[in-house]
Amino acid sequence: MRRFLLLIFGGIVFSTHISIAQGDSTVIELNNLTITENRMQTPFSESARSIYVVSREELQKMPVQSLNEALSYVPGVDIRQRGPAGVQADVSIRGGTFEQTLILINGIKMSDPQTGHHLMNLPLDIDNIERIEVLKGPGARIYGQNAFSGAINIITKVPSAPMAIFSGYGGDFETFGGNVSVALPGEQYGQYLAVSRDQSEGYRANADYRITNAFYQSYLQLEEGKINFLGGYTQRAFGAAGFYVPDSEEYEEVNTLFLSADYELKKDNWTLQPRLYWRRNHDDYVFIRSDPDFFNNLHTTHVGGAEVHSTYRSDFGLTGLGLEYRYEDINSTNLGDRNRSMLGIFAEHRFYLFNRLDITPGLYLNWYSDYGWNLFPGLDASYEISPQWKVFANVGRSFRIPTYTDLYYAGPNNIGNDQLEPEDAITYEGGLKYFKGSFWGQLSYFKRDASNLIDWVRSSDEVPWQPQNFYNVDIQGIEAGLNFDFSKSTAAWVKKVNLNYTYLDAELLNTEGVESRYALDNLNHQLILGITHKIIGRLNHSFRMRYLDRATLSNYTLLDSRIFYQNERFNIFVEATNFTDTEYREAGYVPMPGRWFRAGITFKTGLDLQ
């Protein structure tokens, strides 16, 4: 199988080179994307960090129906799904635990103080996403607390043309879904509304799900500045057999609502962006679906925050400053009624030396009501060897606050620990990047030295799991990636090729005599191959291969495929995921689906606003 895939890859690259050389001599430059941070915005090619971007165009070609599935093709990201179509998933970056990744929408933190299992309860689907920016490595200097091993920033926007979009799909296991959205942009005022529904009877017993999303975004252009509003709601009800306990009949319903408003002002050399946001999450967990009264947990969390971010451009470079306040509250039948608050101060400065050396030092000063003051510095640097070659390095300190589940949970199989301290880590990275025309590549080495890592452990099968702090966890690894983009070439048969490999080596110290639940559940090897090519005319084929070798589970290879016809108004597809019917698990005690066929259509129509 591996030799066969290598032959395919080599043949495709060769044929692409020939087709471009013979039929189209146009140089296809990569889009110089701008990475959207809360203060500084850095062109993708100039970043001194490991960042991977998934564009809207790429999302439309992937054999996926959810954000979770799309992220599974991002190198260095480990999506541990407990069910398909975005039911529930844990997100890990570079061997971190599912609690150590920060998820954001347009820079707004989606963290839940109850548990990281709710991190992906996002009130949007892939049709609402403009692009996904994945920052690998410590993000405290940029985004603050809980960006321990990385951050995923999901960018949305109001479409630039007035239109209505209708989409629907169906597949095996009585699966179907649909999305309706309307975009009404304008010079002064614009808005975008989308509603979607996904459901299935499930690929096994007690694996049915119902997911409803509503998403709204608008802007108001003023004489000076712009006001942005964002809101969303998601309702998820699903059979959770084996999600947390083997051979169980678990069931869960989760409702999440979030709202945000910000003001953007750009004047002379200054930019200013104050923001308010609020997030509510309600979780109804039932241990035995047929007997809800046997063991039932109800949790409701409220998170409110206020932020102010600004930049100033001078002869000495670009200075970024930020201030944030965050309040977290929980009302729970199991975890109790609790609250805590946080204050954070950001400062960073980007400057150049000798026109080739790009340096950005920064720091984040944090106060938590439960843990006092802490300082988290960081430094990014890159050197331009030539217009194509660049070396980069970064170092940063990051941290993660225990969730309320870590601290206070009480159940038959899990018991919290209210003596936990925050996790802390220093991460180092160095690498080489290459950009030229339609090609870019990267090779990097990284090392994370973590202390006070929180992991759920037990000494035997007869005792419940309980979280503990451990003194030292060392994770190091290598990432290598090659990316070709010929999508704008009319002559190229192959439109896009991505080949990425990640190696991780993790060592958890000071754990003699105990079993680890999460800390060493990382991937050792991850190989991802993606190919999109033309069949004839507007008929195309997208192929994805993932080889995953996890430290505690058997290795496996997954093959996914989508055939699609696309023009300005229609996108018709037929896809198959796991078409080799491989048996595998990603998280908990949940066997993942075998072969799954789906087909669907998206239709766009313009709207006349005159």
Q: Based on the structure, what is the oligomeric state of the protein chains?
A: single chain
**Percent strand:** over 45%
| Tally of helical runs | 5
Number of strands: 34
What share of the residues lie within helices? under 10%
Radius of gyration, in angstroms, nearest whole number: 24 Å
Distance between the termini: 58 Å
> Structural class per helix/strand content?
mainly beta
The CATH topology is given as: Maltoporin, Chain A
Average pLDDT confidence is 89
The CATH architecture can be given as Beta Barrel
Shape designation: globular
The top level CATH class name = Mainly Beta
Q: Strand count, sense and closure of the main sheet? A: 22 strands, antiparallel, barrel
Total number of distinct structural domains: 1
The CATH homologous superfamily is named TonB-dependent receptor, beta-barrel domain
Query: Spans with pLDDT under 50 lasting ≥5 residues?
Result: 1-31
